[in-house]
Write a structure and sequence with these properties.
Layout lengths: L1 H17 L11 E7 L6 H14 L3 E8 L6 H11 L7 E2 L14 H7 L15 H10 L6 E5 L4 H7 L11 H8 E6 L6 E3 L1 H4 L2 H10 L4 E3 L2 H4 L3 E2 L1 H6 L5 H12 L8 E2 L1 H10 L6 E11 L4 E5 L6 E6 L3 H12 L4
Parallel strand pairs: 1-2, 1-4, 2-3, 4-5, 5-7, 7-12
Antiparallel strand pairs: 6-11, 8-9, 10-11, 10-12
Helix pairs in contact: 2-13, 5-6, 6-9
Length: 332
Amino acid sequence: MKHLYKIIVVGVLLVIGCAPKSNEPAEKPVKIIFDTDMGPDYDDVGAIGVLHALANLGECEILATVSSDGHKSIAPTIELFNRYFGSPNIPVGEPLEGAPNFTAKNHWNDSLLLHESFSKLVVGQEYPSAVSVYRKVLAAQDDASVTIVTVGFLSNLASLLTSAPDDYSPLGGRELVQKKVDKLVAMAGVFPQGREFNVFKDAESAKYAFENWPTPILFSGFEIGKEIHTGGKLAENGSKDNPLAWAYQYNLKTYQDPPQFNRQSWDQTAVLAAVRDPEKYFYVNGPGKYIALDEGNNSWNPDQDAGHYFLTHKYPYHYVEDVLDELMMFEP
């Protein structure tokens, strides 16, 4: 028994000695720039909710939120959500001339901005260009430290790559991205081939961005979010002063006929894969190369390593749905 007692004591001491010390730094939060069209659809609402929930958990730091859609209601909608989550100082940018400029037919952005409970969250301001926000934010970060998540058109990223040196950085756009960005996560494309909204609405920018992007790209394609349905829980159980809950309530009833109980979750999957290890939820395929074809079509070349990867489903759909629904329920 004495020998057994010694063995147990030694084992316990070894475990304690191997355990991380309380003052050792935790894993650093992922630094995120979120690029969204926030309007033609409303899964962007869920995506920004997931992003702020993960920031609240200490898993990411939101450096900036920019619009890839030039419609006048988009940037204020982003600002409204940031302010609701208690983050009024997160920069908001809007695209340069020539980007897509439209929103949903049911006018949910305008209705949200004019709502008596939420209009006070928007102060009304001139927004800087998304490119200037990108350049200012990236120049201030450590090398290879930023993850960009794009869940809309590729207009801003094409403009960033071709941007000239300025007061923020002596580097051209592509060189600045190469130096400061760790990876790009894009809700774009269909795999192994197809045609997807975010790409074909500004096919020229998408082609340029994906062919010239100098860091790894992880794609969450149309087929991923198509099968993952969320938002009904938020619409039913979110508080009355939650603008995200209102947006889902309004859109589930009016966005299409017949009304929906949940909505596909294209954009939320990209945010989840950008902040957390994507292999916790999906298979990651690659490396290979995203091939941009005419009129916004794409295909996949598995035999050429361009540093491109794409997700495929690993679990039954409800597994990821439950994760996203729980994150979307976060309220400050």
